Inverse folding.
């Protein structure tokens, strides 16, 4: 089968269309944020309660703010039933669950509300919406009907604007919206490129990762959260093993492990995510690590050429979302269902 035939045969829930329409989530997020009552204070310490596709927005927001003029904004992502970061009356808490029924998020919210009244929820409905409404906290309701991992645009850009809204003058806030509109136009161009079967860099990358175990390395200061997103997308969409590591930490341990088991080494493909904002010494470490590992295994790299960090962030995210989709096609699986996760959830409900 050619690629178009594979998509028709395998993509039963039409993830292809959801991917192509992803840039439209930016426009809708702008409208949602304009209408919503977000945080009513100028506190810059946030804890986001979430799991999986509902949590990754928090990691990406922290990465963006770290590499922006707003680098005094702190976001901690709490992936657990209990609170792993101290919450007090000055902490802003975001309860994020796309379905509204994520049990870890619901329990962590119960703990959080004991310590702070600065809480908002972001969800498409479910139990979280009910509880927050009953407790008198604002709920940011985003469109339903998607997998949580497909709704990243809603969870990221809506929170992005709600966090910045009380901190910016009206003029600066409007300039931020214009920036997002330009980002949407850029991603729409990419959507046309990545949705075509010919001259498609995303499909070509998927072919490089096919029948391999990708191990993705990046620096913690820039693209480690992107690597986390890519890992999850490959694992859920392509049903394929994928691992990540951070530079420079991996230079102190993991780089030494590419020896055994010998039968596995040839099955690995290392991918380096690079960025202009990487620390100069980490840039040198990446080049040295590439040189050393390429003597033993196949190594590829990816880097965005955009000037603005937010554009580079979503250039990478959108590209590798398509890569994970095409990898699913090459693996002969429907990218949408996640049967093993469902099996686990069913077990936990017994």
């Amino acid at each position: 089968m050619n690629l178009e035939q594979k998509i028709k045969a395998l993509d039963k829930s039409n993830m292809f269309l959801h991917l192509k329409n992803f840039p439209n989530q930016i426009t809708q997020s702008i409208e949602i944020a304009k209408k919503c009552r977000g945080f009513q204070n100028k506190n810059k310490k946030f804890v986001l309660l979430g799991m999986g596709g509902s949590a990754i927005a928090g990691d990406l927001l922290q990465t963006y703010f770290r590499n922006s003029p707003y680098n005094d904004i702190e976001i901690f992502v709490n992936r657990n039933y209990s609170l792993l970061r101290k919450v007090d009356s000055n902490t802003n808490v975001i309860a994020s669950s796309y379905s509204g029924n994520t049990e870890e998020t619901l329990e962590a919210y119960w703990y959080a509300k004991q310590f702070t009244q600065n809480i908002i929820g972001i969800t498409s409905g479910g139990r979280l919406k009910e509880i927050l409404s009953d407790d008198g906290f604002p709920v940011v309701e985003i469109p339903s009907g998607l997998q949580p991992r497909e709704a990243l645009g809603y969870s990221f850009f809506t929170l992005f604007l709600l966090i910045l809204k009380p901190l910016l003058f009206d003029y600066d806030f409007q300039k931020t919206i214009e920036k997002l509109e330009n980002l949407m136009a850029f991603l729409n161009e990419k959507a046309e490129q990545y949705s075509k079967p010919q001259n498609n860099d995303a499909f070509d990358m998927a072919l490089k990762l096919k029948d391999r175990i990708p191990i993705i390395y990046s620096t913690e200061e820039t693209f480690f959260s992107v690597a986390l997103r890519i890992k999850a997308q490959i694992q859920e969409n392509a049903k394929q093993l994928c691992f990540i590591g951070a530079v420079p930490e991996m230079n102190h341990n993991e780089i030494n492990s590419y020896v055994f088991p010998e039968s596995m080494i040839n099955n690995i493909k290392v991918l380096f995510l690079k960025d202009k904002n990487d620390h100069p010494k980490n840039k040198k470490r990446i080049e040295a690590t590439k040189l050393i590992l390429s003597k033993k295994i196949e190594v590829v790299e990816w880097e965005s050429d955009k000037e603005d960090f937010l554009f580079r962030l979503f250039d990478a995210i959108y590209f590798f979302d398509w890569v994970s989709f095409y990898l699913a096609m090459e693996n002969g699986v429907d990218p949408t269902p996640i049967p093993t996760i469902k099996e686990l959830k069913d077990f936990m409900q017994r």
The first helix runs from residue 3 to 10. The CA atoms of residues 18 and 150 lie 7 Å apart.
